[in-house]
Amino acid sequence: ASGGVSLTASALGVGTFTAKGGRLQSTSGTARTYLNNVVLDGNVAFGGLDAATGVALTGANTFSDVAGGATTLARNVTVSADSTLNWDQVISGASFTLTKAGGDRMNLSRANTLAGVTVQQGTLGYANINALGSGTVTLANGTTFGQGATIGSTTADRTLANNLLIQGNATLGVGSHANFFSGNVDLNGATRTLTMGNTTTFSGDIQNGGLNVVASNKTVSFNGASTYSGGTTFATSVGGSTNNIIVNNTTGSAFGTGAVTVQAGNNLGGSGIISGATTMETGSLLRPGNSPGVLTFGSDLTLNSGVNMVWELWANTEVNSPVTFDQIVVGGNLLLGGSNGVTLDFGTTAGGSLVNWTDTFWDSQRSWIVYDVTGSPTGASNLILLNSVYNDAT
């Protein structure tokens, strides 16, 4: 096909279809499913005659009476989708790259052997953690990328190992499925705005730039040590919702070496390490640990006026090994800006807490180090208790 071809689903029979360029589109009004093996030998556009019409290329797993086969890349190829393109055949071409162009969405459902994938325009969703081969996934400015369908039942099943190269501001998240990225994320030398379309976990090294995170009612986790130096901002939560920013790296720094700013509507928690000077702005919440845990700041920590903290204690003890209560470790200075409330949370029996006021432990006065500060603490008198009732775990 060297020009535009508009076909019904059965028009091509079941043999191999070779597209050297042009456009393959379905007739108007309904999505069409093509059962053919496909060879791509040029830049091919897929789409319907109207925006609501999609094109699907499927195989034997869906129609058992039709022999399935591989979709082959005869050379590096650009697939342009201007309506939803569901690709449910194997793309074979270990030395070739796939570029997704066109403003709409393309879905990859099988394990493929690509050398690299570029999302040049629109949205690319994956329904298999091997759908993108083993190469780098490059995201151009304004593109969207993420898990587009159910994959397995565990985090390991859903974790994408590809490295990501971010060449502009991008959205992570397709549909309702969480994203798990274990590869490195290269910001390509600039500060990038990443909009979280879904809950997302980063476990690799974020490097070479700066990060601005925008989200609405999402959890964003950082499990790895990162090396970027351009700073990190968690923007005010969209629409007045609440985001959870979870830091669980065990070495290095979750946000590289730059300064960190946490704006209103974001809860900062986890048991990891943040190296850069951190400022929590009015309307944010400090919630250390993972019920409970120790959150470590390598430099200064500033809590602006009205920034509150939730402090958990889960045992009748003053000893924090293993971790039984929340603690903030500050390697630099601590500044409490004013009216910094502390809510005491003693957990529940169902959650694993053992706190019980009838235990003889409580017959004596007890104390805990909540902020362990290497430098100078300023404004400690601004700490206030927010609780009016103190319930134990039972």
What does this structure look like?
With 394 residues, this protein is mainly beta. Helices cover 1% and strands 41% of the residues. It has one helix and 41 strands. The protein has a 23-stranded parallel β-sheet that branches. The protein is elongated, with a radius of gyration of 26 Å.
Structural class: mainly beta
Portion in helices: under 10%
Main sheet characteristics? 23 strands, parallel
The protein's oligomeric status is single chain
Summarize the structure.
With 394 residues, the protein is mainly β. Helix content is 1%, strand content 41%.
Descriptive labels:
single chain; 394 residues; mainly beta; 23-stranded parallel beta sheet; 10-stranded parallel beta sheet; 1 helix; 41% strand; elongated
List the helices and strands and how they pair.
Layout (H helix, E strand, L loop, with lengths): L3 E4 L9 E3 L2 E5 L5 E3 L3 E3 L3 E5 L6 E3 L13 E3 L3 E5 L3 E3 L3 E2 L4 E5 L3 E4 L7 E4 L3 E4 L10 E3 L4 E4 L7 H4 E2 L3 E3 L3 E3 L6 E3 L3 E12 L3 E3 L3 E10 L3 E4 L9 E3 L8 E5 L12 E3 L3 E5 L2 E2 L3 E3 L4 E4 L5 E4 L3 E3 L4 E5 L14 E4 L3 E3 L3 E6 L25 E3 L3 E2 L4 E3 L9
